[in-house]
Design goal:
The protein has 261 residues and is α/β, with parallel strands linked by helices. The protein contains seven helices and eight strands, in the order βββααβββαβαβααα. Among the domains are: 96 residues, no CATH class; 80 residues, Ribonuclease H-like superfamily/Ribonuclease H (Nucleotidyltransferase, domain 5, 2-Layer Sandwich), CATH 3.30.420.10. α1 runs antiparallel to α2 and α3 packs parallel to α4.
């Protein structure tokens, strides 16, 4: 049953969503109550206002939802810049801290699983699992371990198709964890493997290629192109029209200015 034994009162300051371009702060006076359950380890607890306060939180749920939504989309630096547009002043570190507190969505075992490795600075390798149908990442871990991949597949049964590269490690992990799954190679690794094989074959027969190629035919001699007639160009036609106009005007003026004998 709720406690009614008041220990003390104290004020809480809560940041809320901005109104009219101005930040909002709520000064709230709440009660600290005695716990009447003898088995409880805490002697007192703070009163919570539903929809307005959250334990150990100095922002209202409305403001917290906005920070989390922007943080999920834009992360730290971009999220902080976007929040300033809507009059919420938070640092990028605060946005990242709130982002790390957002619970992950429930993991749904995909029907088509993509397995690949990645490298940080070409030194530290990791394994990435994605849903090959939606392209969404599922999980990642450090290293390339067949046993760890097999354990993940056993904990998440239902994978029917596994897309992987030509790594022996991932083949062993998939075979051990999901023996009924069909192992295929994705388009990227198919083209990558094909290009590597073509390069190897071309390098092995590099000396034979020039001898097998026919002698290149000399290019046909190009006939000298005659220079365009200046009179046929656009500038030439324009100059000719000006010349004729000037002479016409000159003849007209001479006829009007002639004095009879």
């Amino acid at each position: 049953m709720p406690s009614a034994w008041v220990h003390s009162r104290y004020e809480r300051q809560l940041a809320d969503a901005a109104v009219g371009g101005r930040p909002v702060r709520i000064d709230l006076c709440v009660r600290r109550l005695y716990c009447e359950n003898p088995a409880c380890l805490k002697r007192t607890f703070a009163e919570q206002v539903p929809g307005l306060t959250v334990r150990y939180q100095r922002r209202t749920p409305l403001l917290q939802q906005a920070v989390e939504a922007v943080g999920v989309l834009l992360a730290g630096r971009g999220g902080a810049r976007m929040l300033r547009v809507i009059d919420i002043a938070l640092s990028r570190c605060t946005v990242l801290n709130q982002l790390m507190l957002v619970p992950l969505p429930p993991l749904v075992t995909p029907r088509v699983l993509g397995v690949d490795d990645f490298a940080l600075y070409g030194d530290t390798y990791g394994t990435l699992l994605v849903d090959a149908t939606t392209g969404l990442p599922l999980t990642l871990w450090e290293g390339r371990d067949a046993e760890r991949l097999a354990r993940w597949l056993r904990r998440h049964p239902g994978v029917e198709v596994a897309c992987r590269d030509g790594s022996l490690v991932y083949r062993q992990g998939i075979t051990s964890g999901a023996p009924d799954a069909l192992q295929v190679s994705d388009r990227f690794h198919l083209w990558q493997g094909l290009s590597r094989q073509v390069q190897k074959i071309a390098a092995a027969h590099h000396g034979c290629l020039p001898a097998a190629l026919p002698e290149p035919e000399p290019p046909p001699a190009e006939a000298p192109t005659a220079a365009p007639d200046p009179a046929e160009t656009r500038a030439g036609r324009h100059a000719r029209r000006l010349f004729e106009t000037v002479h016409t005007l000159t003849r007209g003026c001479a006829a009007r200015c002639r004095i009879p004998d």
